[in-house]
Amino acid sequence: MTDVKAGVEYKINIDGNSFLLDSKKFQLLEYILDTGSLTAAAKSINVSYRTALNYIEKIESTLNVKIVNTTKGGKGGGGGTSLTEEGYSILKECKKINAIMELHKDVNEIESEIVDIDEAKGVMTIKMHDFKIKAPLNRNYEVGDKLLALISYDNIFLMVEPQTSSIRNILKGQIVEMKLENEVIRVRIDVGGINIYSDITVSAEKELNLNIGKEIYVGFKAMSVATLKL
Q: Using alpha carbons only, what angle is made at residue 80 by residues 40 and 15, rounded to the nearest 5 degrees?
């Protein structure tokens, strides 16, 4: 069973209809898939059968799709509940989001907007406050879409001087905080009013002669940027 933190919400979009699926409803769909029973699924998430049914009806009416199929048993019972193709697609999309979150536990989350798409190169330009960066193109996105850009702390490189390399994004900032955590130094850099964090080794910190207030260049590859549509 997927480990999901309470309070997590998944924005599901189907044919122009959207629904915020919270962790409880996500787990309900997971247990329906695993048990084939709405009753057992409801018990697993500690809600009544009626509450679980209301969850399903709310999702279906909002998204205007059927997400579960219910079969009635004969005299001996044996009925069950299963996910429809749409219901399974919703569950799969939530699991994808969980996988991204798991891979990027320590991640910079920056709200941004697509301002340009280069299909030939397979990249898009996204704007964050007063600066722009390159990210891998998602062909389901369009110019003007609002995104959440995710960049792992350990994918951020720090440089005293900008260098020409495979790094596609280089931004100038100022160090505002440094903390030693588990033999790794977490550096917080103010880049145009946005905080960007980088995890570096103690030896790298000494080599770069870092200190609070120092101007520094932040670099990261375009492929290091994951995006979620808001």
A: 95
**CA of 141: how far to CAs of 124, 151, 211, 220, 226, in Å?**
9, 18, 39, 22, 13
Q: pLDDT tens digits for 34-53?
A: 999 999 999 999 999 999 99
Residue 219, domain member (yes or no)? yes
Separation between Cα atoms, residue 50 and residue 56, nearest integer Å: 10
Is residue 195 domain-resident? yes
Please report how the helices 49-63 and 23-35 are oriented relative to each other, as an axis angle in degrees rounded to 10: 110
Check whether 11 has a pLDDT greater than 50: yes
- Report helix angle 85-103 to 23-35, nearest 10: 120
Predicted TM-score (pTM) above 0.85: no
Inter-CA distances, 159 with 80, 108, 162, 172, 212, Å: 59, 18, 6, 9, 15
2 part of a folded domain: no
Q: Tally the domains of the chain.
A: 2
Digit-coded pLDDT (tens) for 188-200: 999 999 999 999 9
